[in-house]
Amino acid sequence: MENSYRGFVNREKESDATMIAAPKQQTTMPSTDKRWRIVDATMRRHGYVGNSLIETLHTAQESFGYLDEPALRFVAGSLNLPLSKVYGVATFYHHFMLKPQGKHTCVVCLGTACYIKGADRLLESLEGKYGVKAGQTTRDGNLSVLTARCLGSCGLAPAAVLDGAVMGKVSGADLLDRVAKQVSHDGR
Amino acid sequence: MTVDELEQIAETEKQSCKQCPRHLHVCVAAGCLSSQSDQVKQALEAQVKAAGLEGQCRVKGVGCMGLCAAGPLVSVPGENVLYKGVTAQDAPDIIKGLQADQPVERLRCPTDVPFFARQKRIVLENTGTIDPERIEEYIAADGYVALHKALTAMTRPEVIEHVSRSGLRGRGGAGYPTGLKWSMVAKSNAPTKYVICNADEGDPGAFMDRSVLESDPHRVLEGMAIAAYAVGATQGYIYVRSEYPLAVQRLKTAIRQADRQGLLGANIFGTPLSFKIDIRLGAGAFVCGEETALIASIAGQRGQPRPRPPFPAESGLWGAPTLINNVETFANIAPIVRNGGDWYASIGTEKSKGTKTFALAGKVNNTGLIEVPMGITLREIIYDIGGGIPDGKKFKAVQTGGPSGGCIPEQFLDMPVDYDSLAKVGSIMGSGGMIIMDEASSMVDVARFFMEFCMTESCGKCVPCRVGTVQMHDLLKKIIDRKATARDLALLEELCDMVKNTSLCGLGQTAPNPVLSTLRYFHNEYDELLIADEGAAEPAGAKETVS
Prior knowledge:
The complex is a heterodimer.
Chain A lengths: L10 H11 L13 H11 L7 H12 L4 H11 L3 H10 L11 E6 L2 H5 L2 H12 L12 E6 L11 E3 L2 E3 L4 H13 L4
Parallel strand pairs in A: 1-2
Antiparallel strand pairs in A: 1-3, 3-4
Helix pairs in contact in A: 2-3, 3-4, 4-5
Chain B lengths: L2 H17 L2 E6 L2 H4 L3 H14 L6 E6 L11 E3 L4 E3 L7 H9 L14 H4 L17 H6 L4 H9 L2 H11 L11 H10 L6 E6 L8 H8 L1 H15 L3 E6 L4 H16 L15 E6 L9 H8 L23 E5 H13 L1 H5 L9 E8 L5 E6 L4 H8 L9 E6 L5 E4 L9 H6 L8 E6 L4 H15 L5 H18 L5 H17 L3 H5 L2 H9 L1 H7 L9 H8 L1
Parallel strand pairs in B: 1-2, 5-6, 5-8, 6-7, 9-13
Antiparallel strand pairs in B: 1-3, 3-4, 9-10, 11-12, 11-13
Helix pairs in contact in B: 3-4, 7-11, 7-14, 8-9, 8-11, 10-11, 10-12, 11-14, 18-19, 19-20, 22-23
């Protein structure tokens, strides 16, 4: 990577330099789970450089559904970054989850267009029925209720995503109905 | 790749298109996909097969046709037929209608309406007509011709000269002259330079960039490659939201195809230009739309902005001069190079040239994606193109620019839409989200909604934004809960002024805009919610302000 030719923007590089000097952390895979190899492959593709951190966390979350401590430690060790930095990045971005999600997820879009069309009431009805707040998972681990900043489906407002499938122009009753069906689909 | 090969691909594609007499275009952009347009496409394909029409009729997935509210959309190109709200069950009727030359009237959506007639499409010229997953179709639609022209017939300053003459201004919202930005990066003698496409479209209520990426990804790649030639960069990045998986997938496909055809990579068109594009995924942080925060995020850091200067044009990614433009800005480049800067400058107003895409949403009949010439009035957009307010309700305000913009009331409906007019009334052009609100919307609540957004999206680096947005949000909440007095309102106004003037980056500097603009035009709504001030020594109120 090209080094900066202006001193004062070098702060980011400096931290990289100290990182290289830091003692080698644990880089072996936390378990024999094959998914760690997928994570490792992403890092290898980027040559284990520190700036592939976000890409790596994306892969880890895609593989495991969330980022737990062993995952963060493994990534920090392999990329030779301080764990504090990895944790800092993982908590900075909304997309990364540090806790496992429920079996089913329902994301309610709270973008402007959806909000104007009553997405807050959609969310309230879900929260009320399942006794959770946005961002939480029901105690039986069956359903996570999440919110999104904007799905970009503003033409279909209000929108929600149930287990990856987008529902447009959804009403409160309709949403509760479909969530209930999806959750009970496992025969519980 | 040589120009002959390019023409050959275009010719083959056009021939194969001509050989098939009938076509059906199914919108497979995110809007229609979420109403199951993929099933419609499969059903149509099955019906074509069942009717033995293979080779006679081709079903093709295309990008966004614009009228997202009426999706899934299916069009019969060349016959002026557009079907709306199509389901898989309608497929047999559509094929029968095609065979009998009688369109299915019950599904028909008129195409001679202002929604289509009033638009002018430059950025969106191919969306809804070409298959975004096939480079051949883009090439057949004059794709990569501009890149060839720039590389072989124009010098680097000439390219920048055309971009400058076109009057194109940054479509990400701030409206910085694109040509000026390019010449700043070009001026530097640094050995390494970068071109970054900002596709971190975080404004709630905006989906133009997503539609462009999903519907015509090659146009963005071509724009970036021309920019790389003009400024002397060899590596490009597209920073795209992880919330847009379809856009990411189509971009990846497009980059792979362009690489294979030699339109990206080493020695493009046999010239010394080498340019590679990589995708970087965002991870859900609105602040990463700010250019210095975006650069930090590409480098694997927390997306926190830094003070400017130095501007990225001098010192950006890894300290190298970096050109950052928005998706729509890059999408305008190929037509400008192809047709010349003066052609582009002939569209629009004196200070705002060309066209602008808008994502029309909220309480309006025709929600969807539109592209209009600069200088069109808000009334034309909302009532002619947008088809007015549904359910016979009354228009109240239009919000542009997302959390950084403002609410524009009815009295300015006849104002032309351009950068300067919007700024004059306290809003901004923004990236192109346009949310219409009717009389049922409380403007104080809208202001609170945006402040809550800014509060959670503040990166926490500078105090005015981190603390100020929380305080402003709490004050707005207090007003809505009917617990606030005139003094709280005065405090809110003071805070707006402070946060606006002392925050580090655009997020904080513009966070008060929704409050300021609603205070300016809908002050009575705030006043109605206030309670009487019972003197300076009211203990309960004082306590609440502290909390």
